[in-house]
Amino acid sequence: MQPNGCLLLSVAEPAAHDVFKALADPTRRRLLDNLNANDGQTLQQLCEGLAMARQSVSKHLAVLEDAQLVATVWRGREKLHYLNAAPINAIADRWITKYNRERVSALADLKTALESTMSKPSFVYTTYIHTTPEALWVALTDPAFTSRYWGATFTTDWKPGSTMAWTYADVTIEDPEQVVLESDPFTRLSYTWQTTTDEFAKAVGFSDDLTAKLQSERRSKVAFEIEPAGDQVKLTVIHDDFDEDSATLPNISGGWPMVLSALKTLLETGATELAMDLSRAQREQAAAEAS
Hints:
alpha+beta; Arc Repressor Mutant, subunit A; Alpha-D-Glucose-1,6-Bisphosphate, Chain A, domain 4; 2 domains; two-stranded antiparallel sheet; globular
């Protein structure tokens, strides 16, 4: 008879088991390396350089998708594949931090690469949360919730075309180009990204050079796609429309996993873990690199 402890492990940790199983295969690791170097590829592009049939590559990708290591986004008739850092982040939270490693280091090799084809999303991140679409929508839009995990609040009526005022780090940012793009309650939300004002840059510790670079770039946009997934909700964040050699992209690539981890913690446990405080070291590092 199998010991109770083994039974508990097999039931309680299916997600971790799937991740380790997916990573155990060298072909699947090669696919992830390929996406890490050049994110947002089609099946045909991923098949190039692999000495195996298209169907075999497709099966390997299915295993990676089941383990949530790969996220997919449709752009017209093309299905694009993106490296998803969420499962690695979960492993870091559970084990790596016990050895006093910073959470950000677990994601260092998983940052999404900027693509020169601007029609493709530049950052895609998928996570699964034990909640409802309604509760998740409220958490994304209600200042009482966003202030608890993000440290940011938004003043808007959440109607397409309406302007948004951002308040973050005790600074309120108002700009007519900060607007709601799409608002389909419980399904999809999209808006343009914030303006980097001098006051905001000073509050978060950006260097003068980094601030100037951020202010010169085109305005990016972010979308949240919400899908029921059994007793969970699948949340996909797509952040795109960056300049080539963008300074915004590396900042949001490291920041979004922290914000979404704090959001997940709040919805599943009620505990508050402010992403703004967690990302302070990253902001200081970005400022130092730009100086």
